[in-house]
Amino acid sequence: MRIALFIACYNDALFPDTGKAVTAVLERLGHTVEFPMEQTCCGQMHYNTGYRREADSLVGAFNHAFRGYDAIVTPSGSCGGHVRHHHKTETAPDVYEFSEFLVDVLKVTDVGAYYPHRVTYHPTCHSLRMLRVGDKPLQLLRAVEGIELVELPEAESCCGFGGTFAMKNSETSVAMLQDKMGNVRKTGAQTLCASDNSCLMHIGGGLGRIDSGVRTLHLAEILAATR
Amino acid sequence: MSGEQVNVVWLGSPTFPKAAHEALQDTQLRGNLKHATTTIRDKRLRAVAELDDWETLRLAGSQIKDRVMRHLDEYLLQLEASVTAAGGVVHWAEDAREANRIVAELVRAKGATEVVKIKSMATQEIGLNEALDEEGIEATETDLAELIVQLNDDRPSHILVPAIHRNRTEIRDIFRREMGKHGVPAPQDLTDEPRVLAEAARVHLREKFLRATVAISGANFACADTGTVGVVESEGNGRMCLTLPETLITVMGLEKVLPSFSDLEVFLQLLPRSSTAERMNPYTSLWTGVTPGDGPQEFHLILLDNGRTKTLADTEGRSALHCIRCSACLNVCPVYERTGGRSYGSVYPGPIGAVLTPQLVGVGTSEHADSLPFASTLCGACYDACPVRIDIPEMLVHLRAKVVDSHRGGVPKPEALAMKGAQVVFGSPRRLAMAERLGAVGGRIIGIGGGRWLPGPAKKWTGARDVPVPAKESFRTWWRKAGRG
Description:
The complex is a heterodimer of chains A (about 230) and B (about 475).
Chain A (H helix, E strand, L loop, with lengths): L2 E3 L3 H6 L1 H13 L4 E2 L9 H6 L2 H14 L5 E4 L2 H10 L7 E4 H8 L12 E4 L3 H6 L5 H7 L5 E3 L14 H4 L1 H17 L4 E4 L2 H13 L5 E4 H6 L3
Parallel strand pairs in A: 1-2, 1-3, 3-4, 5-6, 5-7, 7-8
Helix pairs in contact in A: 6-8, 10-11
Chain B lengths: L4 E2 L2 E2 L5 H10 L1 H23 L4 H17 L1 H14 L3 E5 L2 H14 L4 E4 L3 H5 L2 H7 L3 E4 L2 H8 L16 H15 L11 H18 L2 E4 L3 E3 L4 E6 L3 H7 L3 E7 L3 E2 L5 H12 L7 E6 L9 E7 L3 H5 L15 H5 L1 H6 L10 H12 L5 H5 L9 H5 L6 H15 L7 H13 L2 H20 L10 H4 L12 H7 L4
Parallel strand pairs in B: 3-12, 4-5, 4-6, 6-9, 7-10, 9-12
Antiparallel strand pairs in B: 1-2, 7-8, 8-11
Helix pairs in contact in B: 3-12, 9-10, 16-19
């Protein structure tokens, strides 16, 4: 199986460790991962902000970059959702969010990870309601050795990021963030985990600002951690 | 305050972010909303989980509404013929002004100076109470929550529970202060117990029910094949209005027509479970024209367009017209929960308001209406809750595109320039790699300040959130240097 990693532009620039972690986990499971260097951006930000023409102009380049692969794996639920629902091209390979790929395609939940910390999981909206990943990320986390997984109250409520919403409606965004942070702190977790760094950038930015001591970490980075 | 409303939106409404700024300061409001929405949310989930075929019902509801929209002209003519055959009179109103004029003329023709009203979104949309007031006709809302809003000269903040932003202590004060000005006063020893408050409203309204000769209602459904019109409600005040007065005037948005009486089977299951989380409505009133010796002897049905056919013309936006006004989307919306309904500046608040209001008044007609499609994180909770499967997130981005397109051609705004710039950068992997290297340099500069405060528009981020610092080395650079690609 030829697996292509679609990193998503913001991970490429801001969170390269997540891409390294995805690669590490898949290689540990015996697969080869390729990174098509021609990839740039799926156009989600443009599309969701109303710049549909600009978004459409990026679809062709995306398909060109990923032509010929059997599967595209991405550590971004929202970009994965965007490609699956809005690119509307039948020739491109199927796109899988990382946890979907592990559980549905590779049929694995125990990836041999070790992470001895108290962790809570925030199911990001697009993973949950656009891709319908269900409890797949939790299945993967439960199999991590040493982990103490605690349930996040009101987990399915949006964190308030919403892409450009965080700027256009910053006060409402922050009000939602405060409630999410309150729930995170109630769990006493040391690490907040999610399958999307965009939401984590927002929640983590808030948790950092109040010096909460809670660390945010992408699911892939927990799964990549070993003894 | 309520007098300022003309046609769907409240005149002079600020943009959503500005209105939300005010609402977010009101801790009492936020507390009331949080309590109310989370309670109804859990109840709805339980009510829906009782039905094995809920998803099939949603699909059926969606398909029936699809069919109605495809053949709206035919169903409306059929409805007109059925209602007329059953002894009713059908009127067509192109806009709010025409609908209000027809109602006022009908009321005046009966020599009435007061009317009782059933809770209705269509009459709120057209500002009927204010229009009647100008004609010297006093309209009394008989739904408890609508009465609270009306007595306080307030604005509704929710489709189903318009006084959701008020708690019972506030309601007690409103009743004490206002009821006497309009009829039977509230007792002096009125407490804030729900039962006591309801009794005060009951006594206040009873006098009006017994005196009124004209009632005005909206309609939840109208069946084209039989001419049957239906209203569902919880309190029984609607039943009083529909049975006691001599004349009944119903104002109905023309999208509320259903092909057949048998379609009610679907909607009478979908609506109560989604709106009040009940298995069925306490009161379901259905009437077909006029029945001699039983109920109103004169029935007028006003079919209201007011922007609906314009909405219908947009095949991507038209499913906003599928809405059955259950308000499940409001109750699950994380934005609504924080800002309340009045921030939307329209009689239609929440997610459905964010897609319906701009279409009814026209995209590109005001900064206020154009701000509404952006009042969402696209979290998708509304779509999952909608009993007729309106894909609200998809419609929001469709309307965002219409807003953006309506501004193309002029002097581009900073946002449009940024988006164009991003498109150019993303248009080539080489340009992206270069931008990432520049970003990494910028990141080191940001890093000096600990990533805490940035100037200009970025303040909207750094006001409450640290900024992510670009990595020293992008993923693609790492990949290349590692000799992987």
